[in-house]
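Quick question about two entries, pasted in order.
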Amino acid sequence: MVSLVLASASPARLGLLRASGIAPDVVVSDVDEHAVESLARQRDPQLSPVQLAQLLAEAKGAAVASRLAGQTPFVLACDSVLEVDGQVHGKPGTPEVARERWEQVRGRSAVLHTGHHLVDMRDGRTAGGPASATVRFASVTDAEVEGYVATGEPLHVAGGFTLDGLGAPFVESIEGHPSTVVGLCLPLLRRLLTDLGTDWWSVAQSRA
């Protein structure tokens, strides 16, 4: 079986891969997301949220690939951002920001963009691209927002919510593949592997 390195510290992404039969090694990049975004916006002030998600995924993938030359066939990096009214919502970081963002999105829809960057370490080829899904949020009460923020979960995830954790009851519906919202679009990963000449079952293990 061909091995894969996940260039992400996200337990959700790791869980998705494991559930689909892929058991990756994890090597977290040391990319400074804020520095990458700042430099990118200097070059292109009109940088869109989906472009930012893809740019960050590429930066993380390239950083980890440069450290693992000859050690693994594939490196996969992803990055997610939530687009609300054309603005980027990354990880809130503080309870105050998480609370403000939930007050902004409750009862509304927003778009979750996940960028993907796959590096074939055997020949240096890359494949990648973004996947997007529209998220419809429930009309949560102030008490529900306070309770969720108090768990600490929304502080450290893109958009301040999860679909596979404590935030799931507050998401009414998804337009797009649910794995995109979790942080790694599995159908897109299959296509990227195919683009690089690798079959899904070369990296995934069947439980049959």
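Here is the second entry:
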Amino acid sequence: MRDLDQRLLSAMRDCGTNPRVAAAARALSWSGEHGALWLAGGLVAAAADRDRRGSWLRGTALVGAAHLTSMAVKRVVRRPRPQLPALEPLVRTAGRHSFPSSHATSAAAAAVAFGALRPAGRHLVPPLAAAVCVSRLVVGVHYPSDVAAGALLGSLTAALGAAWMRGPQPGGREERFPDG
């Protein structure tokens, strides 16, 4: 598995030798730092969507919880960041541990949580989340297994919190979101 991880990472990092790809990957990595893109997006949506404000805030909290969980797992697993002999990483990292990818965790949590709240979220957030995940490979700071584990952790966290995110309605019913 390690050999496959290393080969896939090397192939993805090679994509970063293209200046345009490198710039896009750096921007996506930077925007996803500490879940900032998703936390800010959730707060903006909460301010704009008065009818679902509570659900957006709870969804944003789920993204934050997923991110914090990934950071805790990193402290336990303590997998070092990859080092490619021929290519330096394109970004600096906040920490030295790579498993799981916290960027992937918060991105996947946002895709699941925000995707459940509005049709636009179902169409816009998952591709952006996937791009953030791939960016971590292109900039050379995560193995593919780090990203996959992070995406799984984020998806599970948001899925487990989905009922709480929707919130109770009068009469004890869960909020149902019509398309639109």
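Reply: Residues 7 and 106 are 25 Å apart (CA to CA). Confidence is low (pLDDT under 50) at residues 169-173. Hope that helps.
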